[in-house]
Design goal:
With about 120 residues, the protein is an alpha+beta fold. The protein is about 35% helix and about 20% strand.
Length: about 120
């Protein structure tokens, strides 16, 4: 089951079904094995992380789209849903003003490239 109740854990992560959305992992955190082991014990099979801090509006758009895609196609893997959401963000309208005019594009990798699925990215 890819979706479940959204709940904040003690590790300041958000869990949706068996996928946990986590905070940026600092470069000096090593492998993060302790965090990952703890999440596995709670039933997490995959962790969605960012490699650097992200722009809030584009992150919300990408993550919402990722889960929307997985809900629409239960056979879609986590990794493929992420790839499709990244491409949609890259090709989308970007940040728009109240009149719908694009202020700036989300095509730059700063907006879509920091995301990674750790663990069972091939699972649903």
């Amino acid at each position: 089951m890819p979706f479940g109740v959204l709940a904040q854990t003690n590790a300041k992560t958000y869990r949706i079904g068996t996928l946990t959305v986590g905070p940026p992992i600092p470069p000096n955190a090593g492998t993060g094995k302790i965090l990952i082991d703890g999440l596995e014990k709670r039933g997490t099979r995959a962790l969605l992380v960012t490699n650097w801090s992200v722009h809030s509006a584009s992150a919300r758009e990408l993550i919402t789209d990722l889960f929307r895609r997985q809900r629409a196609d239960p056979a879609l893997t986590r990794g493929e849903a992420l790839r499709q959401a990244m491409m949609a963000l890259l090709d989308g309208s970007g940040a728009v003003d109240s009149s719908g005019r694009t202020i700036y594009s989300y095509a730059h990798p700063l907006f879509w490239a920091p995301y990674s699925v750790i663990g069972d990215g091939g699972g649903t």
